[in-house]
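Listing S7. Sequence submitted for prediction.
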Amino acid sequence: MKALKNYFLLSLSILYISCGSSSKKKKISVDSDANISNIDFTKSYDISSKKYGTETHMVVNDSTRILKTNSLPNHEIGVFPNPGNPNSIKAQDITYTFPLVPKLTGKSRWARQPGVAVNGIKFEPETAERFVCETGEVYRIEAFQDIVDFGLDENNAHVQPTGAYHYHGVPTELIKELDKGEDLILVGYATDGFAIYYSKSGKYKPSYKLGVTPRTGEVCEYKKPGFTTEKEINNTNPDGTFVSDWSYVKNSGDLDECNGIEIDGEYTYLLTDEYPYVGRCLKGEFVEHHGGGGSGPRPRGGGGSEGGGRPEGGRPGGPGGPGGPNGDRPEEEHSHGGGQ
């Protein structure tokens, strides 16, 4: 009887140990909707959100990062269509490839689409909208200004006619999702492969200043289907409404002309709450995604010293805006339908 009792106790012990070890080895599934901040975005990862329909998958191999995405954001967004943006968000089918070991070229080069966020949403900081003057000047309109409503939501984003949701500035809700409590947050990757960060404290300051040279241009108007507005531009002072209002002033801040800096021995780009918000150029080797801008003509400057807000110089002074009266920038680069 005693032997039987000991056997019974031994059996219970084995069963207990077995159940305990099985529990420890059980795979823990991560809900991307709730725990995106737990993802290591320097390695392969998946974001699948049932709530928002997001499907973004990163695969890292020996030489590249390959990001496949339907470009649906994994966070709260504004209402689309809206009075300033007539487009509805639609799923995309896009694959981005980034070099795993990016290489600096020593030069800066304008990029229509400088990078992509970790959730698969692209950054396109500039717009294709413009004021055209009868005297020949062309002024590219910034996304953030008080003249034209582009229908931006709380994430500084809106929608293109293709249905592609995209960021013009700091993606507020995504930053909240990624926040682990540290100052620097990895937000995405630039087209040249370098990382894109956001500093919650605003530690790294851009080096752009408003120009001082008065603008030129008479009888200037902005048109979109069903809407036309005129603006008195001649002899007005730069106030940030146009791309050409801004000038890169070397060493006036912490960041270079592409909003980049070396941190702990690694070159990286910063999203900032101040202009240019998202860098408009890249300093590494890259091929522009989806064509346009990367291998094509770069817009000329205009609007101040140090290249008129443009990398690699440009026409100083106020007239013409980016591209000047006969600018060579691709017209299809960023349209929102209905002129926005």
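Caption to Listing S7: primary sequence and predicted structure tokens for the chain studied. The radius of gyration is 25 Å. The helical segments are 2-25, 32-35, 172-178, 305-308.
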